[in-house]
Design a protein that fits this description.
Helix content is 34%, strand content 9%. Helix 1 crosses helix 2 and helix 6 packs across helix 7.
């Protein structure tokens, strides 16, 4: 969890909005906020930037600490505290998220410190030391294949993976995957994208069904989802491999006469 530290109204609203944009939850779910106040813990769920900023500032004006979940929560959780603060309740019937509720991991927090005599004595890092930490963090992210940029990704990682699984089984799907993925110019790599496609086929990952794509996050909506014979969007087009192979047909031609 990340603490939103707010000093003044204008600066606070700016910090809160930047935090919301950094989290990038909207494509995958909603954002959970928690506040520790005089009358116990509170919880709220925001589904847009304006509501997130208003909720954070409402509690900060009271001098309370506001925390935000790093990972998005399923949309269904917002029913108990949709863009409004409610007393937080734990347990199975509670209104706060637990580990089992996390569907997508969109953010990874790294705690990197420099090792100097000053830091060992308990002094905070200097500006120069913080710059070194940033350089190390960028190198780690690059080496491990994470996004590692301050730019907002055009295609969130979970959605991109689902997209590649669909493309991997389409005739012409590889070309489509590259054509769309390269719009994310800062992260796109032809070799990495192609390796993902090949690994998907090698591992036998199956394209998701319509009901899974709709899911609790409501990322996909179709008015015919309950009455349509199609179970996967990919069923509407040609596949690299059919679901069932045609049975071999017997040879009906007359046999050649021997000479």
């Amino acid at each position: 969890e990340t603490h939103i530290r707010v000093i003044g109204e204008d600066e606070g609203r700016q910090h809160a909005r930047l935090m919301y944009e950094l989290l990038g939850h909207e494509p995958c779910g909603i954002t959970e906020l928690r506040a520790l106040g005089e009358h116990g813990p509170w919880v709220a769920y925001a589904d847009n930037a304006a509501s997130f900023v208003d909720l954070a500032m409402e509690r900060n004006r009271r001098g309370e600490h506001v925390y935000v979940g790093l990972q998005p929560r399923p949309k269904m959780m917002g029913q108990s505290a949709w863009n409004v603060w409610q007393p937080a309740r734990g347990g199975r019937a509670g209104n706060v998220a637990r580990a089992k509720d996390i569907e997508y991991v969109t953010n990874i927090a790294l705690d990197i410190d420099v090792s100097t005599p000053q830091r060992a004595a308990g002094h905070p890092a200097s500006d120069d030391e913080l710059c070194v930490c940033v350089v190390v963090a960028r190198r780690l992210l690059t080496a491990e294949g994470f996004a590692g940029t301050a730019a907002v990704a055009l295609i969130p990682e979970p959605a991109w993976m689902d997209f590649l699984v669909q493309c991997a089984w389409l005739d012409g799907g590889d070309e489509l995957a590259h054509r769309i993925s390269r719009h994310d110019a800062q992260r796109y790599s032809h070799g990495e994208t192609q390796a993902r496609l090949e690994r998907i086929r090698r591992a036998g990952y199956r394209p998701k069904r319509c009901r899974h794509l709709s899911g609790e996050n409501g990322l996909f909506e179709c008015p015919r989802i309950h009455g349509c014979p199609v179970r996967r969007p990919i069923d509407l087009t040609a596949r690299k491999q059919p679901r069932s192979r045609p049975r071999p047909q017997p040879d009906t031609k007359a046999p050649h006469e021997s000479i």
